[in-house]
């Protein structure tokens, strides 16, 4: 966008003089193009977000729904949340889940992307197959993982027992110790294709001549990766990590299907907790408050993301 | 995020309806139960020249839908909710008292009338109720020469004898929701524990027994993730020799071909009947217009008549909610006898706590999970639950 040449100062007023009366109509036409988007954003974005904000300052009981009375209680909902013992667990789990998902997703995705950079028979087909986890509805993957993790008959325990890696079946989903880990593993599997696709397309943009030149200069594979691939891939990496982070923060279905946040809140994250508060305990005020906390966190990272994009384009524009 | 769901669902679309239509809402989603319920409803509607427009949602979405409809003042004319939720709905002020339509709880099991009351007034009546009992695999029991257990001690001993490799002696649900609490409640109550004193010695003892079944390997650790349908699957596939479940399981069991027997739930000592919570859905009439309320009341009244009640409960494998109908029913269907027996002493889950029950049952389910899946002791877990129960509003 910013690479487009800026209009030279002075042309704008000239045009305005020339167009005269038709300028107003033109502006009107421009606005009619923008209007549907503005209406959409106001209705489906601004209204819910604002309503969520006001809801979090109100006390909601089941009676509020029919009679409409939901008194303003200030920060009470937030205070109650923060003092709730589940709050700490949910925050910690959200951090562990996000970092634990993101790091392996990225590492595996990058590894595979570099691997598929070479052309070999069936590489296209294999890459296509690797997209499968992304294409499957999460409900389906979740249900399959439930079977895989089953303590008695699950494929995972059978495999580990068969290889003599464990002596007793591991209660993947039914122990507070493993539940979060199990959810993370499933989510990594779901997220690898996203990383693979974006990083792989980023790699396509790296000119092959650079590798050839480096190889002539005697650079080994690690050095080529370290000094050519990584620096040139940096903007793409930033985007993948930022988007991945925001996606992972709001992951809901995988956890809900696998463990429902349990057992004993062991895999409760802010998203599942928000759902539980609103739709199981019908405390919509507190549910909305948790939602707002999530929005703020996502917003902070979104700002980082926007900034990194801007810097990327600026540095590219500068270079060009 | 929560809110988009709430606000977007308001257009329930009941405003433009012909006068002879009664809108009904329930959660009988299984094909079989759904069809049977429909046929009884239609029969009743026909008698008054009415038509039924039926809304049918999964059980966990029923209450969110009811609250959403309440916001938009577009509640159905006739509503069937899980009985512990009735007081919650009544609390919103959206329901009408049933006495004004000439409906009363006379001749019904006291537990179910209690569940239908809010602040002393009757807001809901059920055609049928259900409860929990112990199912056992008759083939395995006969081969092992065992008798179905009657006491807790016998239950443990039998389960121990039947646990072998990947086959567990017993299966139950300890999922982190009402379902998990409801399965534990008969053990809590039969031992003298109470929902409003969860940290009492009796309550702790009951939970220790419950979690001990898992700790000692007599039940799978996966019980914390199983709902009651998962429990049926384990039982029919032969991976559990006994299970705790309700009468709705009968049709799946008959389909699977498993040879099973049913006995009342074991109690701490012989001779005392188990105290089970009453299950099942309860019919209520939301505030709409006088004509529509009258029509809904006619349909509900018709459902509660002897013959319709018998038909409906036979199809659903529920126990008729009226005592004399239940007696006849037990004679005709001996397999249901343990359930009929239990319902007589069955308790309404919301009897002491009213709408607060919801929060307390969640705290109890969490305590069960913390004990079975975590490393919290029963006493610690229940003490925490009791604190939550105290502050519940």
Q: How many distinct domains of chain A?
A: 2
Q: What's the total count of β strands of chain A?
A: 0
Query: What share of the residues of chain A lie within helices?
Result: over 70%
Helix vs. strand class of chain B: alpha/beta
Summing up helix and strand content along with how strands pair, one would put the structural category of chain A as mainly alpha
> What is the beta-strand fraction of chain A?
under 5%
Oligomer: heterodimer
Q: How many structural units, i.e. domains of chain B?
A: 2
Strand content of chain B: 5-15%
- Tell me the greatest interface: A-B, 46 and 44 residues
The total of beta strands of chain B comes to 13
- Based on Cα principal axes, name the global outline of chain A: flat
Main sheet of chain B, how many strands, which sense, barrel? Answer: 5 strands, mixed
Protein name (chain B): Multiple sugar transport system substrate-binding protein
Pfam families (chain B): SBP_bac_8
Family (chain B): Belongs to the bacterial solute-binding protein 1 family.
GO molecular function (chain B): maltose binding
Can you describe this structure?
The complex is a heterodimer of chains A (320) and B (393). Chain A is an all-alpha fold and 320 residues long. Chain A folds into two domains: 11-55, no CATH class; 76-319, MetI-like (MetI-like fold). Chain A is built from 15 helices and no strands. Chain A is flat. Chain A starts with 10 loop residues before the first helix and ends with a helix. Chain B is of the alpha/beta class and 393 residues long. In chain B, 47% of the residues lie in helices and 13% in strands. Chain B contains 17 helices and 13 strands. Chain B has helices spanning 2-8, 31-47, 59-71, 86-91, 110-115, 138-144, 152-162, 178-190, 201-215, 228-236, 250-256, 290-303, 306-316, 323-332, 337-344, 357-373, 378-391; strands at residues 21-26, 51-56, 78-82, 117-118, 121-122, 124-125, 128-129, 132-137, 168-171, 240-246, 260-263, 281-284, 319-320. In chain B, strands 2-1-3-12-6 form a five-stranded mixed β-sheet. In chain B, β4 (117-118) and β5 form a beta hairpin. In chain B, α8 (178-190) crosses α16 (357-373). Classes of the chains: A mainly alpha (320), B alpha/beta (393). Chains A and B meet through α2, α3, α14 and α15 of A and α1, α3, α4 and α16 of B. Chain A: InterPro entries: MetI-like, MetI-like_sf. Chain A: Keywords: Cell membrane, Membrane, Sugar transport, Transmembrane, Transmembrane helix, Transport. Chain A: One of its GO terms (biological process) is transmembrane transport.
């Amino acid at each position: 966008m910013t690479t487009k040449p800026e209009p030279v100062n002075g042309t704008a007023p000239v045009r305005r003089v020339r167009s005269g009366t038709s300028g107003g109509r033109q502006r009107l036409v421009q606005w009619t193009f923008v209007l549907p988007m503005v209406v959409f954003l106001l209705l489906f974005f601004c209204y819910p977000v604002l309503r969520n904000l006001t809801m979090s300052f109100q006390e909601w009981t089941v009676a509020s729904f029919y009679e409409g009375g939901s008194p303003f209680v200030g920060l009470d909902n937030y205070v109650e949340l923060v003092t709730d013992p589940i709050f700490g667990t949910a925050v910690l789990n959200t951090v562990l889940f996000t970092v634990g998902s993101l790091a392996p997703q990225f590492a595996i995705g990058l590894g595979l992307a570099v691997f598929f950079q070479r052309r070999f028979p069936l590489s296209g087909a294999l890459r296509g197959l690797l997209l499968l986890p992304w294409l499957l509805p999460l409900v389906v993957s979740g249900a399959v993982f439930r079977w895989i993790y089953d303590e008695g008959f699950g494929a995972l325990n059978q495999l580990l027992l068969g290889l003599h890696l464990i002596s007793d079946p591991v209660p993947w989903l039914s122990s507070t110790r493993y539940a979060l880990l199990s959810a993370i593993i499933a989510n990594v599997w779901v997220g690898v294709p996203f990383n693979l696709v974006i990083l792989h397309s980023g790699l396509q943009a790296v000119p092959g001549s650079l590798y050839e030149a480096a190889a002539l200069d005697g650079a080994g594979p690690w050095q080529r990766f370290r000094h050519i691939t990584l620096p040139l891939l940096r903007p793409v990496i930033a985007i993948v990590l930022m988007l991945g982070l925001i996606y992972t923060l709001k992951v809901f279905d995988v956890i809900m299907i696998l463990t429902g946040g349990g057992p004993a809140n062991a895999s409760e994250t802010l998203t599942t907790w928000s759902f539980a508060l609103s739709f199981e305990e019908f405390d919509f005020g507190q549910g909305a408050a948790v939602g707002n906390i999530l929005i703020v966190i996502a917003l902070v990272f979104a700002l980082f993301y926007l900034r990194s994009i801007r810097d990327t384009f600026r540095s590219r524009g500068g270079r060009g | 995020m929560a809110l988009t769901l709430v606000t977007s669902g308001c257009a329930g679309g009941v405003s433009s309806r012909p006068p002879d239509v009664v809108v009904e809402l329930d959660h009988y989603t299984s094909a079989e139960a759904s069809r049977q319920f429909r046929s009884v409803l239609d029969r009743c509607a026909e008698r008054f020249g009415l038509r039924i427009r039926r809304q049918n949602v999964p059980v966990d979405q029923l209450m969110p839908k009811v609250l959403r409809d309440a916001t938009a003042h577009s509640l159905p004319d006739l509503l069937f909710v899980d009985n512990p939720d009735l007081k919650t709905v009544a609390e919103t002020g959206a329901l009408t008292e049933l006495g004004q339509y000439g409906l009363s709880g006379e001749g019904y099991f006291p537990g179910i009338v209690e569940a239908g009351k809010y602040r002393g007034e009757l807001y809901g009546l059920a055609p049928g109720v259900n409860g929990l009992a112990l199912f056992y695999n008759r083939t395995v029991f006969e081969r092992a020469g065992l008798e179905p257990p009657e006491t807790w001690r016998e239950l443990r001993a039998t389960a121990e004898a039947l646990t072998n490799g990947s086959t567990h002696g017993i299966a139950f649900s300890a999922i982190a929701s009402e379902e998990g609490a409801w399965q534990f409640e008969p053990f809590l109550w039969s031992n003298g524990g109470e929902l409003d004193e969860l940290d009492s010695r009796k309550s702790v003892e009951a939970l220790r027994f419950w979690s001990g079944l898992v700790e000692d390997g007599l039940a799978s650790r996966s019980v914390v993730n199983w709902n009651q349908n998962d429990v049926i699957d384990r039982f029919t596939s032969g991976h559990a020799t006994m299970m705790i479940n309700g009468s709705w399981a009968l049709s799946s069991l008959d389909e699977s071909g498993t040879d099973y027997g049913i006995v009342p739930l074991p109690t701490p000592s012989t001779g005392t009947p188990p105290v089970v919570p009453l299950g099942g859905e309860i019919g209520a009439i939301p505030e709409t217009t006088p004509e529509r309320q009258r029509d809904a009341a006619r349909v509900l009244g018709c459902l509660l008549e002897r013959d319709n009640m018998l038909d409906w409960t036979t199809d659903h494998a529920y126990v008729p909610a009226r005592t004399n109908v239940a007696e006849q029913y037990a004679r005709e269907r001996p397999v249901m006898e343990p359930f009929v027996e239990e319902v007589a002493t069955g308790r309404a889950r919301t009897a002491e706590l009213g709408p607060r029950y919801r929060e307390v049952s969640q705290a109890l389910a969490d305590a069960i999970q913390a004990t079975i899946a975590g490393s919290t002791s029963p006493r610690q877990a229940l003490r925490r639950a009791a604190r939550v129960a105290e502050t519940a509003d």
